[in-house]
Amino acid sequence: YAAHALMMPYQAFHAAAVRARYDIDVLRSRFGVSFEQAANRLTMLQRPGAAGVPFFMLEVDNAGNRFRKAGSQGYPQSRFGGGCPKLPVHAVFSQPGQILVEAVEMPDGA
Questions:
Q1: Alpha carbons 102 and 45: distance in angstroms, whole number
Q2: 47 located within any domain
Q3: CA spacing 20 to 30 A to 99: which of 29, 38, 59, 79?
């Protein structure tokens, strides 16, 4: 978190994210960081009064095993078994180099 905060200060990054409509490539270029670093920083924009869009990232393998997650506050995580059947995590392996985005709605409407 500290390294991201130094490279992409909260207020500057949040303002740039809003201006760029959360375009990760624009943010990556603006702050001179990798795609993953910019995406990960987006998951950290949870400051009360200055929160961003609630992003989350999952790092999974072909079998659907989760290696790491970032963000996802309020996202129901399975404790056992594979990933969520509503997220097409396996689709990413058939399209290397493509960014796949999913909008997720929780049962309570969040």
A1: 18
A2: no
A3: 79
Cβ-contact 24, 36 below 8 angstroms? no
Quick one: 58 and 110 in the same domain?
yes
Give the tokens for residue 9.
């200060």
CA distance 61 to 5: 29
Angle CA(42)–CA(29)–CA(3) in degrees, nearest 5?
50
Output the DSSP codes for 29-92.
HHHT--HHHHHHHHTT---TTS-----EEEEE-TT--EEEEEE-TTPPPPSSSS--TTS-GGGG
**Domain residues for 11?**
2-42
33 and 64 together in one domain:
no
- Residue 92 in any domain: the answer is yes
Task: Give the predicted TM-score (pTM) of the model.
Answer: 0.69
Render pLDDT for 27-46 as a digit per residue (tens, 0 to 9). 999 999 998 899 889 888 88
